[in-house]
Amino acid sequence: MSIQIPRGTQDILPGQSDIWQLIEQKARDLCKKYQYREIRTPIFEHTELFTRSVGDSTDIVQKEMYTFEDRGERSLTLRPEGTASAVRSFVENKMFGHANQPVKLYYMGPMFRYERPQAGRYRQFVQFGVEALGSADPAIDAEVISLAVMLYRELGLKSLKVVINSLGDKDSRKAHRDALVNHFQPRIGEFCADCQNRLRTNPLRILDCKQDRDHELMETAPSILDFLNEDSREYFLKVQKYLTDLGISFEVDANLVRGLDYYYHTAFEIMSEAEGFGAITTLCGGGRYNGLVQEIGGPETPGIGFALSIERLIAALEAEKVELPIAQGIDCYLVYLGDEAKDYTVGLLHELRAAGFSAERDYLDRKIKGQFKAADRSHAKFVAVLGDDELQTNKINLKNMETGEQTEISLDSLIDKLKELLN
Ligand code: HAM
């Protein structure tokens, strides 16, 4: 039996990869406008980085990490997300000391989670994410959310919903935690084994449980918004004001708790509301993680960011039937006739490419008709036909494939002529 691709992964084939490149370029261009700069971190990190940051009691750490021991008996993990690595690098490279604050970073690359594969859920997926470290100004929360919204809008998505919540500061979270324990404790026996553990380790996670989500205590659970202290409430209102100023409509959802432990204050997700989009509608998730830098060994530094996967973005584009403007076709296809002409096109093709044109020729010894068919398949704008006779007289035949017009020009002028015509 032939070897197949691992479950939950996919090949991005030519054609499809054009769409990926366009999206990646849009993301990079947008980061340039918003002044986020790229950071590239390793695909694997010390396991402890993720247990400490993402959180011991999260599904990601408990069930989904690709963890292995290397030959030096170190426990390493394929990164399940990008924030922990960005923060680790921020601390390790002392970016908190840079003159330019806040430090605004972005990343794009594969992440790995051992999840049950289904539409929109892969075991290897590519995240584009940004992290702004060093500012506790609610304006940067709004900026981060707007960057994600802008990417989706610029690519042509319309059916989007922005959902926000506040998890409050440490004190608010503590008060809410106590209320959750009081709420669930008397009937915790009716919940799954995971939730029974969560009551002790991290009661907030109960609200995120997929198994117990229909239990009646879920609906009546105390809302974090009722436990926000004055500062947290003011912060949250400011974020909402700025989002409104930016023309971004949103819903507040007190049940949005996110699947990672490091959040304080703002948490948000962007969903697709497109008809026919799969069961998993979250396109993008993020929030504020004041406290994380300290957890990783750096000085107290506020931070906020988001991540979105290109896979789900493409699924949303498909659901909304958005056609991306993928440039098709090459500038010139060289057709040869005769052995000398054939040899000559090797050098000529190189010259065309060196002059900046996309160009191609036949490598399968096709007859002239077959070469023209190949030119058609490559959507060539021009076909240049060179026969042994033309070569003798320093001529070449240039055909405009759109108009069908043909002209004989001097071989030496081919590059100049193409420059003129393609401009
Ligand atoms: P997350 O919610 O775990 O957050 O993931 C963010 C996004 O990654 C999701 O909204 C989804 O688009 C995509 N994603 C997650 N898992 C999968 C999967 N199995 N297949 C396809 N796409 C997936 C984080 O990762 C945080 N680091 C976000 C963040 C950055 N918070 C602050 N800064």
From TrEMBL:
Subcellular localization(s) per the UniProt record: Cytoplasm
NCBIfam families (UniProt xref): hisS
PANTHER family cross-referenced by the UniProt entry: HISTIDINE--TRNA LIGASE, MITOCHONDRIAL-RELATED (PTHR43707:SF1), HISTIDYL-TRNA SYNTHETASE (PTHR43707)
Gene Ontology cellular component list: cytoplasm
UniProt enzyme class: ligase
Summary of subunit composition and partner proteins: Homodimer.
Protein name: Histidine--tRNA ligase
Domain Aminoacyl-transfer RNA synthetases class-II family profile: 1-325
Keywords, alphabetical: Aminoacyl-tRNA synthetase, ATP-binding, Cytoplasm, Ligase, Nucleotide-binding, Protein biosynthesis
Species annotation: Bacillus canaveralius
